Write a sequence for this structure.
């Protein structure tokens, strides 16, 4: 799973949208996520665009978050992460099972490639762990922890879609559309549904330069107790080093990792 860098909090889905839609809580969370994006502290205009919240509402939300200590206003009218948010982040990291890291590390050792772990978050997936490939890898992917990604262009996203009810998939596509990110992106429902059927049949999804040129990924869904996908795990490589056939050969190791991660998530 990989993508190009974007504005703070950008998701790759309906970028730049400014709307009054969404509950007060949803708006606040989007603003907080934008504040925490790399490159901060951020200006008000940047946060307004990234969170897709009107400027006046963004300003009020920031003032409230600053009062509570989740956001810190800098001297130059920029906004950065506050002490309470940093403390919350530390608590979340401390509570993550150490075995998650061991499983992801084992997958990286088995493949020699970059490994991602992402969770399904509404209309997107969110990267929560990333392990770069071996030291001999001549590249570093642009993806980062906290980045939200489209479902229809990524291997993890398609593996999630393949295990969701058909009606829910239609609703998601209706809400986000199928925007093109590269010449290889699937932009029709017929093409996407055909590929999702293949994913269900073989147990993994393939992103063959559909999200980013020269990047090829294989991903598998991580299923909850009821068989509903909570996220997925992927192996990422560059096309000029790893062929389509070679990356698909990682499927057994990928599937084993997804099964091992399921009870931990």
């Amino acid at each position: 799973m990989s993508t190009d860098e974007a504005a703070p909090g950008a998701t790759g889905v309906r970028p730049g949208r400014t709307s009054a839609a969404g509950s007060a809580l949803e708006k606040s969370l989007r603003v907080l996520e934008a504040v925490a994006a790399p490159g901060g502290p951020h200006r008000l205009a940047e946060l307004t665009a990234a969170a897709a919240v009107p400027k006046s509402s963004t300003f009020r939300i920031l003032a409230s978050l600053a009062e509570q200590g989740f956001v810190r206003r800098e001297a130059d009218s920029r906004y950065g992460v506050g002490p309470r948010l940093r403390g919350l982040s530390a608590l979340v990291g401390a509570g993550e099972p150490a075995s998650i890291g061991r499983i992801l590390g084992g997958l990286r050792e088995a493949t020699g490639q970059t490994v991602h772990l992402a969770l399904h978050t509404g209309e997107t997936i969110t990267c929560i762990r990333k392990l770069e490939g071996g030291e001999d890898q001549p590249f570093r992917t642009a993806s980062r922890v906290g980045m939200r990604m489209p479902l229809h262009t990524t291997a993890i996203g398609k593996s999630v879609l393949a295990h969701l009810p058909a009606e829910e998939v239609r609703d998601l596509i209706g809400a986000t559309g199928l925007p093109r990110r590269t010449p290889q992106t699937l932009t029709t429902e017929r093409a996407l549904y055909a590929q999702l059927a293949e994913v269900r049949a073989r147990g993994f999804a393939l992103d063959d330069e559909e999200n980013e040129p020269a990047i090829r990924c294989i991903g598998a869904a991580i299923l909850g107790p009821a068989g509903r996908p909570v996220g997925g795990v992927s192996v990422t490589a560059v096309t000029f080093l790893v062929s389509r056939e070679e990356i698909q050969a990682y499927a057994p190791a990928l599937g084993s990792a997804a099964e091992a991660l399921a009870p931990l998530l």
The chain has two domains: 24-91, 96-264.
